[in-house]
Structures are given as C-alpha cells and as structure tokens.
C-alpha cells in the first residue's frame, strides 16, 4: 500500500502512541471490519475546546454566583 510519506509518518506516530506499529493497526482495523461487517470509523468527533482557561473562569464565576 502506498500513500503520502507525511501521512505515513503522522500515522506511525499516532499508532506508536498506542503502542502499535502501522501494520498492527491495519490488521486490527481489518479484523474489526470483518468481524462487525462495518468500518470502525466515527465522523462525529468534536473539536477540543479552545480557550480552556476562559471556559474554566466562566464556570468558576457561575459557581460563585450559585453559592
């Protein structure tokens, strides 16, 4: 299988974070797909909340109002 070297490197890093090689990740993906009859993909992920400090400050101030 051939794909963009940058994508390959990024995917290798991602799989390494899970203690897997690229080959192991593909094998898991293939086996899970065959077992379930569907592709184990989710397209409903949410973007991380940006400005966490601002969000925490807002929550803290609202908690103070409730006290």
Automatic annotation (TrEMBL):
Gene3D superfamilies: Met repressor-like
GO biological process: regulation of DNA-templated transcription
Top-rank taxon, per record: Bacteria
InterPro entries: Arc_rbn_hlx_hlx, RelB/DinJ
Protein's UniProt name: Addiction module antitoxin, RelB/DinJ family
Organism name: Moraxella caviae
